[in-house]
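Holo model, 2,6-di-O-phosphono-beta-D-fructofuranose. Inputs:
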Amino acid sequence: MHRPVGITVSRHIIDSQRLHPEATGELSGLLSELIVAAKTISAEVNMAGLADVIGLSGKTNIQGEEVQKMDEFANNTIKKRMARCGYICVMTSEEEEDIIPVTEGYEGKYTLAFDPLDGSSNIDVNVSIGTIFSIHRRRTSLTMGQGTKEDILQKGSEQVAAGYIIYGSSTMLVFSTGEGVHGFTLDPSVGEFFLSHPDLKIPSKAKYYSINEGNLNYWDKNIRRYIEHVKEIDKDDDRPLSGRYIGTLVSDFHRNLISGGIFLYPVDNKNPEKPSGKLRLMYEAAPFAFIIEQAGGKAITGDGRNISDIEPESLHQRVPLIIGCQYDVELVEDFLMERK
Ligand code: FDP
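Output:
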């Protein structure tokens, strides 16, 4: 389907829905509600640096309202808007221990997992941060009312939609409902997202590698061998790759998707309480895996599993993540399996 640059995200969603005569409009409604939450967060993020300048002291702002930390604000904004939207039956947030129920009487047929503000260490230093979301169809029957953990704990390959919003030099929304990946840029003067990046495809080979090299001495020897490899000079193989690491997964992912790259957060032995790396399956790895596969890339754990095939066991489960251009992800796997 031709998607002309410049159409609004609302029109894009309606056009996509028309491709499915059986669609009830609920997924479209859900996405539209999420987009409103994203715009609210974007406006607040843009003001974040001013909080101190305009004399907000302690916990109250100039209007005497309580000042929330940005991540709390983002979490509350999504929770409040989605609890009564009528399209989901349960939510889970990276910020909360347990599942979040929706308001009684407003139960719908989808579930929502979200990371309200990814890249927490970058919030206070004016570096890009983002919101990530993942949508599944509920497993239990609609007549059962409130959703359960069973509805939420589903593998990535069963996602109906996934996406992210990046609050960068512009605010962008990138998402997929399983029919390619499309990117929209927010025009803040009219408060509307416009299609700017239709049908995004990741380049076949990486130009960039992204990894926190400060962890080098905690890595397995095969990851170290791979990183040595990407730094070697070999003109015929376009090496060395350039290093880029922002430390906000949304931003590192976004750059790699557009320009071609590979992101790695492998297993390390830094913290015995995190034997599977740092990143979360439900809020980070699975939604990005859905998007990257739709864009022609790949996401793996490095121990023989595709991220999308992992059946989650708990809400905050962590997984190692190697994601990006197919060629490079497969090469990392060869190094890890010692085929290289
Ligand atoms: P943060 O802890 O700052 O919220 O999942 C969280 C995350 O950021 C990712 O966005 C980012 O890619 C990664 O952690 C950075 O971790 P390191 O600081 O260990 O590199």
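Residues 118-121, 212, 247-249, 252, 278-279, 284 surround 2,6-di-O-phosphono-beta-D-fructofuranose (CB under 6 Å). The chain has a mean pLDDT of 93.
Archived with the compound record.
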